[in-house]
Amino acid sequence: xxxxxxxxxxxxxxxxxxxxxxxxxxxxxxxxxxxxxxxxxxxxxxxxxxxxxxxxxxxxxxxxxxxxxxxxxxxxxxxxxxxxxxxxxxxxxxxxxxxxxxxxxxxxxxxxxxxxxxxxxxxxxxxxxxxxxxxxxxxxxxxxxxxxxxxxxxxxxxxxxxxxxxxxxxxxxxxxxxxxxxxxxxxxxxxxxxxxxxxxxxxxxxxxxxxxxxxxxxxxxxxxxxxxxxxxxxxxxxxxxxxxxxxxxxxxxxxxxxxxxxxxxxxxxxxxxxxxxxxxxxxxxxxxxxxxxxxxxxxxxxxxxxxxxxxxxxxxxxxxxxxxxxxxxxxxxxxxxxxxxxxx
Length: 344
Prior knowledge:
Blueprint: H1 6-30, H2 32-47, H3 54-79, H4 87-103, H5 113-138, H6 143-162, E1 167-168, H7 174-182, E2 186-187, E3 190-191, H8 192-210, H9 212-222, H10 224-229, H11 234-260, E4 262-263, H12 272-282, H13 294-313, H14 318-343
Helix pairs in contact: 1-14, 2-13, 3-8, 3-11, 3-12, 3-13, 4-5, 4-6, 4-11, 5-6, 5-11, 7-11, 8-9, 9-11, 12-13, 12-14, 13-14
């Protein structure tokens, strides 16, 4: 049995300590979004005593329900190495179609009308997502250009359908009442749309982390050539990433319609695209693909949500919010870059 001298033991302990610090630093950089969320939470508690009130917490969850759905779809797209700039337009058209079907096509007069209208709305989002997926995966067109063009096309469709007017539902009709009441109905103290958000988070967490489909989506973004050499059709996974993103935009659009009982093309100007891209990036996803996960995307959404909530509680205008969000995004990307270099 070899004996270790005191100098050797000291050197070993020093090396182990250094290695431990490196691992700690890497974990800190890897989960920087979680650190940012904790810091923002503490700052919010200090700035406003109202922040921790149940009403405010519930309000934050409710406000982020639609953004969360779109962010889950954006995550899948960005993990493949793509991007989708058309999500705001797809949400808008989906919200328009559920109201348009009920009011203008008179589906509200039938017992099956609400169900069919919701299916039509989601189908519109899914259909546009499929077009994006086909153009990107099958025709090898750049995702940025494809989704930028789709953004303008779908925005135009939204204005054509509504004729640039707001479509209002007749709240006296039972089918319309059911749609509008969805946004104000509770279950176990939480609005139904919050439970929908939780359900989709759970489903997509399972898909991305525990299924072959999810692992191959990540692998496609990480090294598409290797996936193809393994005999796997990577194009299929790219296509479904965009298709599922469109489907989630459709669901988000239906929820948007329940908030006001109306539909307008102005929803296309809502910042679903920039907000969700920022949330996914803050959550650690790489714009090059191959990296990103559901829990950290959830963290990214709530980082941005708390920034906005703090600003509103202290009655600051929206413009400083944009500056703070930009700083947070740059900080998150910077820490991600440092983390990547440290692991090399």
